[in-house]
Amino acid sequence: MNNEQNSTSGRQNRTKEHLKQALIELLKEKGYHTVTVKNIVDYAAYNRSTFYIHYQDKVELAEDLLISMLQGLEASAGKPHVPGHKVYTATLHAPSFNIVSYIYKNRNFFELINYDDTLPGLHTRFPQTILKIYQEQFIFETINNIPVNMDYFKRYTAYGFYGLLHNWIQDGFRITQEEFIHEVIDLTKTHMYSFKYIGDH
Amino acid sequence: MNNEQNSTSGRQNRTKEHLKQALIELLKEKGYHTVTVKNIVDYAAYNRSTFYIHYQDKVELAEDLLISMLQGLEASAGKPHVPGHKVYTATLHAPSFNIVSYIYKNRNFFELINYDDTLPGLHTRFPQTILKIYQEQFIFETINNIPVNMDYFKRYTAYGFYGLLHNWIQDGFRITQEEFIHEVIDLTKTHMYSFKYIGDH
DNA sequence: CATAAAGTGTCTACTCGTTAGACACTTACA
DNA sequence: TGTAAGTGTCTAACGAGTAGACACTTTATG
Question: Does domain A1-55 have CATH number 3.40.30.10?
Answer without folding.
Answer: no
